[in-house]
Amino acid sequence: MKGRVTLKDIAAAAGVSASTVSLVLNGKIGSRVSAATVAKIRDIAENLHYQPDINAQRLKGKALPIIGLVVPNITNYFYSEMTKGIMDAGANAGYNVILLNSENTLQGEQLAAEAFLSVRVAGAIVCGVCEPGTEESVILEELKRAGIPVVKIDRCEWNEKYPRVMIDNYQAAYDSVKCLHRLGHRKIGIIATTWDLGIMNAREQGYQQAMKDLDLEISESMIYRKKSYDLTDEEADEIADDISKHLNRHTAILAIPGDVLAIECIVYWKRHGINVPDDISIMGFDNVYMGSIIEPALTTVDQPKYEMGKGAMELLIKAIEGRSGAKRLVYQYQIIERNSVRNICASE
Asked: Is the pTM of this model over 0.85?
């Protein structure tokens, strides 16, 4: 058979009407079609390699078995593992995933939302770029008004109206400081950002509170703050260079923007003869793969990225199907201790 296989082609081969074929392939048979006829139609459709006409379904206003996913930066290892969990869970439930990259801009997120509306996806998973209550809320409301359920992942506020998947970023940063303190560090600096992002704010607040509770000194000179979140190599080198000029201020650094920045600092310091962890210790966030193979291996906060992705998809499918379920999934983090942090207590 040449060209695209249609419902009429299947109907002719099965000796039934095209409307009967449509009912069977759309799962709306009820008791109107015999089991033998259903089996026959499905076998013929499979043998003819039938594929539904997506454009025709969209014109009829039907939501497709497609999930829209938007992430800030697809080159970041964190998002690739999270995306794998989303796609695997989607495939198991019969959904395909369209992945779009916002480039950490509201314009990019808006373009992704417009694409989702155009295709008429069944639902959307969003790892956003800014705080709720700003322009992003307008973008998400567009999807909601179109009947497209939304689940947020990772970059979420603790209390917001959308279903969300996250860790307790405040407590993770708090426990990171406690880990460094247990290993003998008393002068603990932090790499932070001026970008108004909820998870970054929560991590910095966790750092600040832990330092206060442990009666450790906090000063602006120990906080290395940059405007952007996804730093370029040059910006990362600037931070690493700044820290290297003031090694007497701190024995350890907590890099809350993530492992990639911590790894870039280690590479820069190596090039300039600074030993990690003897001259300076550093701890990251996220537990990306590269952190485990760099020398020295990176101490970090592990987020269960794959599991979070699966959880987001399962949460979204419940919303698509109108089933009730949790509105917030908070996953457990784990601190992975490796060799980038010196145990001062053991060496004294």
From this structure: no
Q: What percent of the chain has pLDDT over 70?
A: 90
Paired tokens of 308: 């979070």
Q: Single out the residue of 176, 338, 315, 314 nearest to residue 253, CA to CA.
A: 176
Q: Of how many residues is the chain composed?
A: 348
Tell me whether residue 67 is exposed, middle or buried, using C-beta atoms within 10 angstroms of its C-beta: 0 to 12, 13 to 18, 19 or more: buried
DSSP run (H or E) holding 335? strand 334-336
Between 135 and 8, name the one with better pLDDT. Answer: 8
- How many angstroms separate the Cα of 143 from the Cα of each of 115, 137, 140, 195, 322? 11, 10, 5, 25, 16
Distance CA 332, CA 203 (A): 15
What mean pLDDT is predicted for residues 106-117? Answer: 91
Residue matched to tokens 């980038």: 340
> What is the C-alpha separation between 203 and 190, in angstroms, rounded?
10
- Strand ranges (E), 128-279: 150-153, 164-167, 188-193, 223-226, 252-255
| Sign for the pseudo-dihedral over CA of 256, 260, 262, 268 | negative
Q: Is the pLDDT of residue 61 over 60?
A: no
The residues with which 282 forms a beta bridge, in sequence order, are: 253
Q: Cβ contacts of residue 113 below 8 Å, gap of 6+?
A: 70, 124, 139, 140, 142, 143
Query: What is the distance between the alpha carbons of residues 294 and 268, in angstroms, rounded to a whole number?
Result: 13
Give the separation between CA 60 and CA 336, rounded to whole angstroms: 51
